[in-house]
Amino acid sequence: LPGGAFVGFNGETLAEPCYGVVPEAMSFRGFRANIADLPHPLGIRDLTGVTVTVAAPSLSPIAQLLADGGIASFELGAEPLATLRFDHGAQGRRIDLRPTLPLVLEI
């Protein structure tokens, strides 16, 4: 891939999600100027944090790489969970979608 980009998969660690990382030029921030700025129904604008809780004794090398790069935070726990933080949690709201989805939104 161009620019030293690579694709890695964590096939041996079933307790973790599959990760996908794209180069900055392909990211939303890379082409945001070309997209209309539409309001979101929840009043959110930017994804400012991702925390993934994995039900495993340790993190895979790929998860550790993402954590070391500041892309996402990881916690070890009893159940899998993704926590997405928008706008640094400026609204002070927390939407817990469990048990339907292992997902918490902090807005």
Question: Can you describe what's shown?
Answer:
11% of the residues lie in helices and 23% in strands. The protein is an alpha/beta fold. It has one domain. The termini are far apart. The relative contact order is 0.20.
Question: Short summary of the structure?
Answer:
This protein is α/β, with parallel strands linked by helices. It has helices spanning 28-31, 61-68, and strands at residues 47-54, 73-76, 81-86, 94-96, 103-106.
H-E order: HEHEEEE
Q: For the CA atoms, what is the radius of gyration?
A: 15 Å
- Any idea how many domains? 1
Question: Strand sequence of the main sheet, in spatial order?
Answer: 2-1-3-5-4
Q: Span between N and C termini?
A: 35 Å
Low-confidence parts lasting 5 or more residues at pLDDT below 50? Answer: none
What is the strand content?
15-25%
Give the total of beta strands.
5
Mean pLDDT: 87
- Please estimate the helix content: 10-25%
Number of helices: 2
What structural class results from the helix and strand content?
A: alpha/beta
Give a quick account of the main beta sheet: strands, pairing sense, barrel closure.
5 strands, mixed
- Tell the overall outline: flat
